[in-house]
Structure formats: structure tokens, C-alpha cells
Amino acid sequence: MKLYIRVVDGAPYLHPVVEENLLQIHPEIDVNNLPEGWLPFQRVERPLDLPQNFIVVATEPTYVLEGALVKDSWAVRDMTLEEKQVVVDREILALQKDIGKRAAAATNALQSANDTEKVLLESYLTGLANMSLDNPFSVIFPRIDPSLFSLLGIPETQ
Description:
Layout: E1 3-8, E2 11-18, H1 19-25, E3 38-42, E4 55-57, E5 62-66, E6 69-73, E7 76-78, H2 81-110, H3 115-129, H4 149-152
Helix pairs in contact: 2-3
């Protein structure tokens, strides 16, 4: 989809127009030889503001003139220390809930486990209890022995 935008006094004006609509409104325009006051417009995808990147991306772009082209420009800023702490705390809380669910499932499975399975489950529970959450975006869960999958209700395809 080709887009174009008006430029007034050297600055992008209003919003981009789809080529079809532009030609319906201004059939005299040759898109291969745009008249003064019109430039091609390029959409730029919004950067991902994943929590672990600790950045905040604007919800709407601004338009910037770059030579003979106008593009989306996304304002990006680093999170404040307070914002970072909120993200880290949220991630730790989610991990703690996940660890709790895994520990509860393993503890419940102990009731019906044979002696070999009990040793494996206790090892798994120890691994869960000793997990480090120092970097909540790079957590390594303890390995579950595949022989425990059915006991824990985990599909065999994992």
C-alpha cells in the first residue's frame, strides 16, 4: 500500500493518504512525479517495548521529513527507576505464582508416587525452592524427569 502526505511550510501536514484515495481526490496528480507539497510516506513499525527492555514507546508516532520522504517516528525513552521496579516486581510475582503452582502439583503427586518417583519429585521440589529470581527475565526452571510427566499431568509432547 503506497502512502503520500502533504507538506506545508516544510513540515508534514495532517495524516498520510492511501494512493487510491489521493488519486480519487486529485486525479491530476502523477504519483511518479509528485507536485510540490506532496511526498511519499513510509510507515515504520512501532518498536517493541518488551518489559525486559525497560523502555517506554509512545502510543502514536509523529511524522518526520527525511529528504524526499516522510516517515513515522516513535518516541522512545528509558524507564525511570520506579517504572523499572514495577516491571521487575510484577515479573517476580508472576514467577512466584508459577513456582507455587508447580510446587503444589509436585507435592500433590508425592501422595501417589512410588519410591523412585518420590526421590525425583523431592529433587524437583528442592530445585524449585532454590530457584534464583535475581534476574526475573532469565529464569531457569529445574528439569522435570520425563517419567514424571503423567504423574504431574504434563502432556508427553513437552
